[in-house]
Amino acid sequence: MRTIIIEDEDLTAEDLCSTLKRLEPNMQLSARLTSVREAITYFKTAQPVDLIFSDIQLGDGESFDIFKTIPPTAPIVFCTAYNQYMMEAFQHFGLDYILKPFSDESIHKTLEKYRLLRQTFNKTTLDLVHSVSNTHKITERTKKSLVVIHGDKIIPIQIADIALCYIEFDNVFVKTHSGKEYLINKSLEEMEHLLGDDFFRVNRQHILNRVAIAFANLGLSRKLVLNLRVNHSIKISVSKEKYHAFIQWLEG
């Protein structure tokens, strides 16, 4: 297993490396990086790896800045002494979030989660996930399912089972036809490319599946107010600028 460690504290990096080698004898440390700038330069030309362990607070910024600049090609385990970054960590392809000081048990659980990922989804699927994260191309539409991390579970959600996607408090969620909701690590723009022609972005906050729409009411200012087949607490409307495009899409 090829691994990268992003950590600016020498003792912490050495401790993590020795722990990984003890728990995973086949582990190969491809690089140890100490700053945002160094990591960005490294990832521009780096060979693919299997797993990244990264501190969040580095001397020249937060590690999130690395992955905003260079989309990750491997799951990331964020290691930090602070718990307030958890939500943002899972928006950046985070596989796990470990609080310092870490223990053998916490690292072991993370490695087990990674093995589960590899066992559950074959290499072709993982390569597709990594490619999508790295390129953000429209080829995501070939996907039949979306992988989400929910607690300690890795869950594949069929695209057809998604009723809507929406933004709430700067986080992106998907809701299924059965009403289950999941936080995802993609932007609404990425989801718009991924979901395909059966979905329509009705406004800046919502993307809807055609079959999730029960009917529409013509409201004030010629806005369409939508009624869904799934419970959703937020009133969803279509602006008059998108009215004709929406009606055409609704007709299929």
Automatic annotation (TrEMBL):
It holds the Pfam family Response_reg. InterPro entries: CheY-like_superfamily, LytR-like, LytTR_DNA-bd_dom, Sig_transdc_resp-reg_receiver. Residues 2-115 form the Response regulatory domain. Residues 146-210 form the HTH LytTR-type domain. Keywords: DNA-binding, Phosphoprotein. It comes from the Bacteria. This is DNA-binding response regulator. It comes from Sphingobacterium gobiense. The lineage of its organism: Bacteria, Pseudomonadati, Bacteroidota, Sphingobacteriia, Sphingobacteriales.
